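dumping the sequnces here before i forget
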Amino acid sequence: MRTVSLRDRKRTRTRQALVDAATDLFESRGYDQTTIAEIAAAAEIGTRTFFSYFASKEDLLFPEADVRVQAGLDAIAARGPEEGPAEVLLRALRQIGEDSDDLSGRLAALRLRLIRTVPAVRGRGLQLQQDAQRQIVRHLAAAFPDQLDEVGAGALTGAFVGAVTGALQVLLGDSDDPIEPAAVQQALEVAVAVALTPWLRHPDHQQ
Amino acid sequence: MRTVSLRDRKRTRTRQALVDAATDLFESRGYDQTTIAEIAAAAEIGTRTFFSYFASKEDLLFPEADVRVQAGLDAIAARGPEEGPAEVLLRALRQIGEDSDDLSGRLAALRLRLIRTVPAVRGRGLQLQQDAQRQIVRHLAAAFPDQLDEVGAGALTGAFVGAVTGALQVLLGDSDDPIEPAAVQQALEVAVAVALTPWLRHPDHQQ
DNA sequence: CCAGAAAACCGCACTCAGTGCAGATTGGCA
DNA sequence: TGCCAATCTGCACTGAGTGCGGTTTTCTGG
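..and the predicted 3d for all of it:
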């Protein structure tokens, strides 16, 4: 038994229609050249109704943000008895990376491009990232009360996330479409090595 | 001989008047309740003219961003012969922290509060931080061509900046005015220890 | 099957940020 | 002094986002 009331199904469908319509329009016409009115019209709802689905135009690019954050928090909660904070963060990252097609997929590719192109989108993305980070810090500190205080958890999480995004930012830098998974993997390993070296117990980590 | 043409002096004065007026109005009325028209009127210029001084309302809170970034880049350029990348980053941070009253000062305090309060301001701040970070990465990679490639420099800088901001974010968390410099110093040391341990040659660093 | 309540839809009018344009002002400089 | 360029400013406009109020649709209990 899921959330299957007609109301909710309809709402989910409309929401998806909005994302799809926005994806199409952003790709063909460009982000700034697309108005919310056009997106709403393409999804066959009134302009006013749009704002009961998304609070802003930018949010169309990050539709399942909360789901991904939750996956990360779950990964922290499911820590093994022998894991330290660094291992947990690493596993959480892999978890998020797996169940979301974050580098393939039409919307994902569009998002990456618009993040590099449109300031408003970048700002919103960074904002969401920081919010997620804050939650991770709280859960991490709570999960390792003897090894980390809040400030330490903030520093560790910040270093980890900062290293990964810093490396990815350089890697995805200016080129457009051709993203090689191998290179991404390599960049992540560099970032992890830089950020987590003093934290990992086993210096070798496969995959 | 500086930039002392009457034109430039006048322009600088008007710019400062705008920042001052905005500071006053933001403090008394609140950020969202203050319109650009009001700020412009308080600084005795036309509403339209405002946009030839600042591109947006948020930018009023970050008036000397470029100056600070430049100070950081200079600090990198002035590296000593025995310094590694981590030491340079550390020195750059201290440099920036010194010549900008970033934790005292009316505008600085207001900025911190609004960053926590107003999403648009936070987004803009993160954006500026990321831009600065990108420049630092470039300069750092150029300064240490044998020790760092671009991706490594991105990871290192990201880890460093991420750790510091992550720790500060937790520290400045929810409280409002009372910021104790000693606690800040402590948080920075924690962050540096977390992020730079494997990079620093001398594990002890005074001050 | 049928109220009535709740939630969603949606038009209307509004505020405000930000832009393009064109004309008036003013400072720089020969 | 007089010309050029930068600056200032009002006007008109677009587009995001909000509050309000009335209508439609869905849910729930009898």
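Chain A touches chain B at residues 119-120, 122-124, 126-127, 130, 133-134, 137, 150-171, 186-187, 190-191, 193-195, 197-198 (CB under 8 Å).
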